Amino acid sequence: MDQDDAILLVAYRNGDTEALGELVERYKGPLFGFIYKFSEGREDADEVFQEVWVRAIKNMNRYRQKNLLSWLFRIAHNLMIDRVRRRKPVVSLETPAHEDGVPLSERLAGSALSPAAETGGHALGRRIEAAASNLPLEQREVFWLRMQANLSFKEIAKIQKCSINTALARMQYAVSKLRKELVNEYRELQEVGI
Predict the structure, then answer these.
(1) Other CB atoms closer than 10 Å to residue 44's CB: what's the count?
(2) Which residues are within 8 A (CB) of 39 and not within 5 positions of it... i.e. 6 or more apart?
(3) Contacts of 1 (CB under 8 A, 6+ apart)
């Protein structure tokens, strides 16, 4: 475990609530980013993020693992799996969302980028995010845990409760599918002269 994490955990267990605040801030970026990729928007992601910390706090005195972030990802994974199981049947991306009538496809992450931000790497990032949203859940999760959270395949396998070989295979399938989809998109754009 990171020495700073260990010190903050001991301080929190001894009643220092600011130590918990430091842990939340330290892991907010990667944890929230991961949750956001699997949620139904900012409010949903905020709700899951808060629930992760509620569960972590309830179990903090029993926590004995070596990697706090990996443990938090595991809690988030379990919460999101529970939410998927309770979720209503999947609808088309063109189905209007809520009462405003805006299709779900227009609510995908990154759709609010300015035209200037869509150039170069930003545009590619959006295409990768959109393509990754079509991956099966296990492959998408491995992809984002590896790419955004930079977790090892050993940690990912632990989070997903599978073998390292299964985690590696899921990543390989995900990258293969993304590569194929993005190459096809590129060819289509060339055909229309873009």
Answers:
(1) 15
(2) 45, 48, 80
(3) 65, 66, 67, 68
The answer to whether the beta carbons of residues 24 and 11 sit under 8 Å apart is: no
Torsion of CA 120, 122, 124, 130, to 10 degrees: -160
Q: Which fold has domain 116-194?
A: Arc Repressor Mutant, subunit A (1.10.10)
Q: Which residues are 103's β-sheet partners? A: 96
| Chain segment 78-132, per-residue pLDDT in tens | 998 888 777 665 555 566 666 666 766 666 555 444 455 445 566 777 788 888 8
Beta-strand ranges (E) seen in the chain are 96-97, 102-103
Q: Does this model's pTM top 0.70?
A: no
- Rounded (10°) angle between helices 68-86 and 137-147: 150
Q: 115 phi and psi, to 5 degrees?
A: -55, -35
CATH architecture of 1-87: Orthogonal Bundle (1.10)
pLDDT digits (tens, 9 = 90+) for 129-149: 888 888 999 999 999 889 888
